[in-house]
Specification:
heterodimer; A: alpha+beta; 6-stranded mixed barrel; 55% helix; B: 232 residues; Rossmann fold; 10 strands; 26% strand; globular
Chain lengths: 412, 232
């Protein structure tokens, strides 16, 4: 049986029962579409993280309160050190870091979640208290109004800057948020600006635009009731001095906090790039997990194909008997049914890729999440489809080929 | 002239775990090229078993079978398929056409297993259909839109199309009324006149009567008409 005949026979047989062929491939369509979609969401998150590595710049260091190793086992070491050990970071640490060589700009911040409300809405979101020069260190831009100024910080002003998602959460569309008042944990703040939508958009972990910025001093005074600082953002003068600056900060702060053993430090210094590459690894693992779950539906689709092929073989027993009587070899019968299974799977795969791609594009254009459909995932999907066709089509095909023509012709 | 089909001392025993059932107890017969032979016997006589062996769908337990000069008794599945494709044309009681498929396509199907060039297929199928008296008004109809007699003629065209050494017809009129059955038998006679060798298996004497010679079979043995002794 030539390839031309194989193709022709397959086409005739599959178009002979279009409704059933369509229903059979539905399982594969759904499976492949979900694999493509899940992988595109995972890869989209990865891409946006890579983008934020570039956006944040590799010159950024984060000093965070809380030790590297102490966190897991109870609180910070308290005994023995007397009054010299301190908890967390303070304004004096910020001032100390500013004096270090190689440091360009320093900005303190503290973030926490609060209920943010307007007369029309109430949403729990991240409130970021920002110290002086935060706008510069983080390269923040506003689309409307201005960012928190150094004057606002020294005056403990009750002003805030909203992210774009926060605006849409809190105000009816079309409302100009400038000059409006919002309550954060019950305290009234006046909106002075709206931050430009983040270039990274939303990832599967968080939404960078669902955020409210207020002066750090205001936050400490009215919301926290303490002077604590959770993060000190440090911009080094160049990427070459990053490692030196990181060591200097560690040494200086340990001396200031009276800590000699680096494993007992009550703060940690991390390189922004390292943090983001770690996050990227996590998204990679997550992508794999999503794909694996979607893959389960593919297996179910494959079983559907096998079920349908077995039914077909039984239904077409007389046809198989006839084909054998007129000279089809067992191999001809095997290849005919295998070709049908593979064609069904590939057809389902192509439709599934189309649907998965389409849904991913819609999600992306709606701004819900960033999605990326890569050539590799499409190629993989096609390969997997053909594989499923072979695996789940082989047994029914062999069963057809082994039928005794005499019995088959007599089958009612 | 050498016989186109010759079997000698054919024995077929169906073995199961429990017992052995003899179906053919030593059958010998010969058929000359261009003959129209009927093999006749009641049900259970072994005629179906004989027909399956003659059609290369089954192999004998012992004995030899020579078809068109080839000893086919010792061939494997693939070789038997090859013989069936090129040398045997089957006509069945229940037609066995592919449903939802056009008449012409039904006649083309055997040619995909004999590797007839694609460009020749349609023409050969049309010739075969004309030979059984089906004109072009029916060729592109679906097979299940035809009457029983027309379906059986399509089946005969399908048996003819690879130019086989013999046409084996198993109760070809069994599912047809007497009048339509006559037309089918006339079609066979016409084909014989064109030089075809036809073997008809039936249990009806009136059907067997259309053949030139009738081989009677009963209880797995040939009673008369074998002609085997003539060539032995």
């Amino acid at each position: 049986m030539s390839l031309y005949d194989l193709f022709n026979e397959t086409l005739l047989s599959l178009t002979g029962n279009k409704v059933r062929s369509f229903l059979t491939i539905l399982g594969i369509v759904v499976g492949i579409a979900s694999v493509i979609l899940m992988v595109s969401i995972g890869q989209g998150s990865q891409a946006s993280i890579t983008k934020s590595i570039e956006a944040a710049g590799s010159n950024l260091l984060l000093v965070q309160s809380g030790g590297r190793s102490s966190g897991a086992f109870g609180g910070p070491p308290g005994g023995g050190g007397g009054g010299s050990s301190s908890t967390g970071l303070s304004q004096s640490d910020v001032d100390l870091i500013k004096t270090l060589p190689g440091v360009s700009v320093v900005a303190a911040s503290n973030s926490s979640r609060y209920d943010v409300s307007t007369p029309g809405a109430s949403v729990s979101m991240t409130v970021n208290g920002v110290g002086e020069d935060y706008e510069q260190v983080k390269s923040i831009e506003t689309s409307v109004g201005v960012f928190i100024s150094n004057d606002d910080i020294s005056n403990n002003a009750k002003v805030c800057v909203l992210g774009t998602t926060a605006v849409s959460d809190l105000f009816a569309s079309g409302t100009d948020p400038l000059g409006q008042q919002v309550r954060i944990n019950g305290i009234l703040f006046t909106v002075v600006g709206v931050k430009t939508a983040s270039s990274t958009g939303a990832t599967m972990f968080n939404n960078a635009d669902e955020i409210v910025y207020i002066p750090l001093s205001t936050m400490q005074r009215y919301l926290l009731g303490s002077d604590s600082i959770s993060v000190i953002n440090v911009e080094a003068q160049s990427s070459d001095v990053m490692d030196t600056v990181q060591t200097e900060i560690t040494d200086t702060l340990m001396a200031a906090h009276g800590i000699t053993d680096s494993t007992e430090a009550d703060f940690s210094v991390t390189n922004q790039a390292t943090v983001l590459s770690t996050a990227s690894t996590i998204t990679g693992t997550f992508t794999l997990l999503l794909a694996a779950i979607a893959g389960i539906s593919l297996v179910v689709g494959g079983i559907g194909i096998m079920n349908m092929m077995l039914t077909t073989v039984t239904e077409r027993t007389r046809e198989i008997g006839l084909r054998k009587a007129i000279g089809a070899r067992p191999a001809d019968i095997t290849s005919q049914f295998l070709a049908e299974a593979i064609t069904l799977c590939l057809l389902g795969g192509v439709i599934g890729i189309g649907i998965g791609w389409g849904v991913a594009a819609v999600i992306d254009s709606l701004g819900v999440m960033t999605t990326v459909v890569s050539a590799q995932s499409v190629a993989l999907a096609v390969g997997v489809c053909a594989g499923i066709g072979v695996v789940f089509g082989y047994y029914p095909a062999r069963r057809a080929a082994k039928l005794d023509p005499i019995e088959a012709l007599r089958y009612q | 002239m050498a016989p186109i089909l010759e079997v000698k001392d054919l024995i077929k025993i169906y073995s199961t775990a429990a017992d052995e059932t003899p179906a053919l107890g030593g059958v010998s017969l010969a058929i000359e090229p261009g003959e129209f032979v009927a093999i006749m016997g009641p049900s259970g006589s072994g005629k179906s078993t004989l027909m399956n062996i003659l059609g290369c769908l089954d192999t004998p337990t012992t004995g030899t079978y020579t078809l068109d000069g080839v000893d086919v008794s010792g061939l494997d599945d693939d070789q038997l398929a090859e013989i069936r494709a090129h040398r045997i044309g089957f006509v069945f009681q229940s037609f066995n056409l592919l449903p939802r498929t056009t008449v012409i396509r039904n006649v083309i199907v055997p040619m995909i297993y004999t590797k007839v060039p694609v460009k020749d297929r349609e023409r050969r199928a049309q010739e075969a259909l004309l030979a059984v008296g089906l004109d072009e008004t029916r060729w592109y109809h679906r097979s299940n839109e035809l009457s029983g007699g027309q379906m059986q003629r399509v089946a005969i065209a399908r048996a003819l199309v690879n130019d086989p050494a013999i046409i084996l017809a198993d109760e070809p009129t069994g599912n047809l009324d007497t009048k339509t059955g006559e037309i089918i038998l006339e079609t066979f006679k016409k084909l014989q006149a064109q030089g075809r060798t036809i073997v008809l298996i039936t249990h009806e004497a009136s059907v067997a009567g259309h053949a030139e010679r009738t081989i009677h079979i009963r209880d797995g043995l040939i009673i008369d008409g074998s002609h085997a002794e003539a060539v032995a």
